[in-house]
Design brief:
Length: 128
């Protein structure tokens, strides 16, 4: 994880991730291990607050879910995010990388749909 990352409160969103320094496109912000869970575990998690913090995990097409450790669950959603997440099924990790140059202090966001510019509606009201 980059040492210059920090968490701050974002109006209408709760907490979010920021960077004290400007970032270039293609910078890896963090690589976090994940806890992989079964589809049955997912049905139980969907009944809790953790539903908003898990990721779908589909190695070989099998639908499971995972809980990322580190600060990955703290990145807020944006339909035009400035970062993207990448899953490594062999290493059981999620990496967050910048997809454009980002000025210091701008909130770092990911698109919860997977692709940085996917406009498919998410399950909650979005405060852009």
């Amino acid at each position: 994880m980059l040492r210059s990352l920090y968490i701050a409160t974002v109006e209408g969103k709760g907490k979010g991730v920021f960077c004290k320094n400007a970032l270039r496109q293609g910078v890896t912000l963090e690589v976090a291990p994940v806890i992989v869970m079964t589809a049955h575990d997912r049905t139980l998690l969907d009944q809790t607050l953790l539903h908003d913090y898990i990721f779908e995990w589909q190695p070989g097409g099998e639908l499971m879910c995972c809980m990322a450790l580190g600060w990955v669950p703290m990145y807020n959603h944006s339909y035009s995010s400035n970062c993207e997440y990448y899953m490594d099924y062999e290493q059981a990790t999620i990496a967050i990388k910048t997809i454009r140059d980002i000025p210091a202090g701008e909130e770092l966001t990911i698109n919860y749909n997977g692709d940085w510019d996917d406009g498919t509606p998410v399950w909650f009201d979005v405060a852009e």
